[in-house]
Amino acid sequence: GQPKNVQVFWGYALHPDRVGNFVAKPMSDCGGAEILKELCGHLNFDPAVFDDAICIPCRMPYITSMFMPRNLTDRPLPVPKNSVNLAFVSQFVEIPDDVVFTVEYSVRAAQMAVYQLMKIDRPVPPVTRHNKSLAVIFATLEKAFA
Fold first, then answer.
1. pLDDT at residue 133, as a whole number
2. In whole angstroms, what is the distance from residue 45 CA to residue 96 CA?
3. Cα separation values, 120 from 42, 53, 109, Å
4. Three-state SS for 26?
């Protein structure tokens, strides 16, 4: 197991190939210390906070591929039309009105596939349409313009 005095932090860069604001090169070209320096700058932390830290850079070039521009037909349904023994489960299937990159999306895709292939007459939990919630919309606007 992990020692009690060890803390792990997972960071993620949305645009790792852009030049940083505090380190004058792209994150993809940075070592661990430089990544921590950039992080400290954005969080307004004293860099001494990370004096004992170890940062191990890791490239995951396809982690956000599900957010890339696409056509509606680019991703299959969990169970393709006319399939009787093949299904797809993951972030890369098409589920109308749902948002990828969540555990719920993966679980819903698996439920849809299993229920359909096994002929289980049970509803899949509905997608929560937060974009239709006035409370969520107002809270978002309040945060955006605060």
1. 83
2. 42
3. 50, 51, 15
4. strand
